[in-house]
Amino acid sequence: MNAPLLDIRDLSVSFDTYQGRARVLEKASLTVNQGEIMGLVGESGCGKSVLSRSVLRIIPTPPGSIDGGQILFEGRDLLRLPQGEMRRLRGERISMIFQEPMNSLNPVFTVGNQMREVVRAHRSASRAEATDACLEMLDAVRLPEPRSVLRAFPHELSGGMRQRVMIAMALICNPALLLADEPTTALDVTVQGQILAILAELAGRQGLSILFVTHDMGVVAQLCHRVAVMYAGQVVEIADVGSIFARPAHPYTQGLIASIPGRVSSGELYAIPGSVPSPIEPPPGCRFRPRCPHAKGGGCSDVAPEMVRVAPDHSVACHLFTSGGLP
Ligand SMILES: Nc1ncnc2c1ncn2[C@@H]1O[C@H](COP(=O)(O)OP(=O)(O)O)[C@@H](O)[C@H]1O
Ligand SMILES: [Mg+2]
């Protein structure tokens, strides 16, 4: 098999806070293969945004610091790349879209001005050539009347249209990897569905790889090929999407799936009891132990579980699966 396009190995990131050092990512590892849509799922505060921003090296340092690990992209460690090369990669080989597109668009310029600038920052193109590239991309994200979209100011568009513009801007230089951080969370369900369909189509057509960050297991089921489940700064389970839903191994993953609306037959909404622990003093041993219905004393509270393989494309970090079961 080919090497993965993105290979994050044992990434640890912390932040200096008034309360102490917050260890926000602790040896997080995942891969994204060429042409694959990889989900990164977990409750709010688990470290998904910090992980995806680390790939572009847009974590503010200080207060943040990358304490260890590697981020291999096309074989090179991004954490060791000179600033100039990193800048070239951004937008050209790796792009990112965020939850609230209004924050990434400049309110005082038209969409056309901003989009053409992206094109011309990365290749030499006349104004007319840049405009053509923009129109083509706006058409690819199914925006009706692309010419009037180019003339519009961001506030004149709906949230769903703005997110399509952001996707078009992110993909116009034909990157290899798109980091998508909850890009549909602020949208209503119908618009969300349309955007997911566009992303899936573009990924298939352009051979694009996507790291898709979401707190929503339902979105994972709709869009992703594989998924990494993150809890309290650690990746606790990785599998192809079929296996995750058919045989979720980690009790946290099981809880996330049970929390999908409509999953529980009683009609009531299930929620995992408790909340994500503070990264300043995470519980020792397994970080999920305080909320875990299967936790035992001893091992679970003392020893951090290692990732173990339970099937060819399925790994989990839980003492239920370490050799001999619970210690
Ligand atoms: N600039 C920062 N300073 C201090 N703590 C931060 C900073 N950014 C993120 N964090 C902390 O890192 C943890 C993970 O945050 P984040 O990656 O945004 O979670 P998610 O995207 O999964 O909701 C949270 O506890 C958050 O408070
Ligand atoms: Mg986030």
Assign the CATH topology of the largest domain.
Rossmann fold
Strand order, sheet with most strands: 6-7-8-3-9-10-12-11
How is the quaternary structure best described? single chain
* Mean pLDDT across all amino acids: 93
Structural class: alpha/beta
Element order, helices and strands?
A: EEEHEEHEHHHHHEHEHEEHHHEE
Described by strand count, sense and barrel closure, the largest sheet is: 8 strands, mixed
Radius of gyration: 21 Å
Helical residue percent band: 25-40%
Annotation keywords:
Rossmann fold, alpha/beta, four-stranded antiparallel beta sheet, binds magnesium ion, binds adenosine-5'-diphosphate, about 325 residues, eight-stranded mixed beta sheet, 2 domains, 12 helices
Give a short synopsis of this structure.
With 327 residues, the protein is of the alpha/beta class.
Question: What is the fold's blueprint, element by element?
Answer:
Layout: E1 6-17, E2 20-32, E3 37-41, H1 48-56, E4 64-73, E5 76-77, H2 83-89, E6 94-97, H3 101-104, H4 111-122, H5 127-140, H6 146-151, H7 159-171, E7 177-181, H8 189-206, E8 209-214, H9 217-223, E9 226-231, E10 234-240, H10 241-246, H11 251-258, H12 299-302, E11 308-311, E12 314-316
Parallel strand pairs: 3-8, 3-9, 6-7, 7-8
Antiparallel strand pairs: 1-2, 1-4, 4-5, 9-10, 10-12, 11-12
Helix pairs in contact: 4-5, 5-7, 7-8
Adenosine-5'-diphosphate (ADP) binds next to strand 1, strand 2 and helix 1.
